[in-house]
Amino acid sequence: MAVQALPTPLTSPLPGGSADAHVVVEPIITGEVGVVQEIQSSPSGEMGFLKALRKMRGPTVAVPVPAFLVRHPTAGLVLIDTGLHPSIASDPEANLGRLAASFTEWTVRPGEDVASRLRANDTDPSEVGTVIMTHLHLDHASGISEFPGATFVVSSKEWDDACSGLFPLLKYYRRQQFDHAFDFRTVDYSSDSTNSFSTFGRSFDLFGDGSVVLVSTPGHSAGHQSVVLRLADRPMLIAGDAIFLAGQLEPGADLAARPEDRHEYERSIREMQLFRRENPSAIITPGHDPEFYDRLPDRLG
Length: 301
Fold this sequence. Notes:
This protein is α/β, with parallel strands linked by helices. It is 22% helix and 25% strand. The protein has helices at residues 37-40, 46-54, 92-96, 98-103, 114-120, 138-141, 156-162, 262-278, 290-295; strands spanning 8-9, 24-35, 61-72, 76-80, 106-107, 128-132, 151-155, 183-187, 195-197, 200-205, 212-216, 225-230, 235-238, 283-285. It has an 8-stranded mixed sheet. A 6-stranded mixed sheet has the order 9-10-11-12-13-14. Strand 9 (195-197) and strand 10 form a beta hairpin. It is globular, with a radius of gyration of 18 Å.
């Protein structure tokens, strides 16, 4: 399937930034997905992945699928990832495709998706002006269609990889989720429009005010990016799937069984470890850690 959507390169900050701005963050658990333990954490790397494949029809662990609503004082509402689409509650195949829906257990309860949560709080989803995609895997991009008026920001390498190849599901992409005539903007982390930030070698200041900084953390997927947010009292790093579990920032921890690029994956983890060392009070969110999200407050900042 060829992708018809055409992104525009993002080479300068989006409008809305303001001096010394800090943000408020509201984590939203949009549902759960069943995973084999070895996918998230395995001491044996690729062998662990092969073991996980053999267990795909066996018991799985339900892990949360988060998104993050960011309230910026002048840029407005920003969403980081879109979580699971509400249709998965009744018809998973429509959004995920038959193969992904049949091989994995997906759970979305009524009112759990991002758009429903916003409406429940008297906020129209159309008020979300910017959506940052850490990457385009099907559990993160599932809800893209719910925000047709937003500007979507994704790394150019992620967009190119998600749109190339004959079998996108082998890389966890479902192109129908993001192939819309929406306002997609791509950040090229190899271009002169990016810079270093803190311990990260490549970054992009989204609003030009230091409150929302995109940082390149490839490895889990080809063009994965994370987001550093400036809260009132400390920084917060939305790591996406650069780590699945909070403990994977500990030295010697078991890592994911099969990232897209293990060298880049481990380099990104080292940058995050350095960030934590230099910012010991920082909140760092993993991708799918049930214990972490059970403890995380409903509002930060």
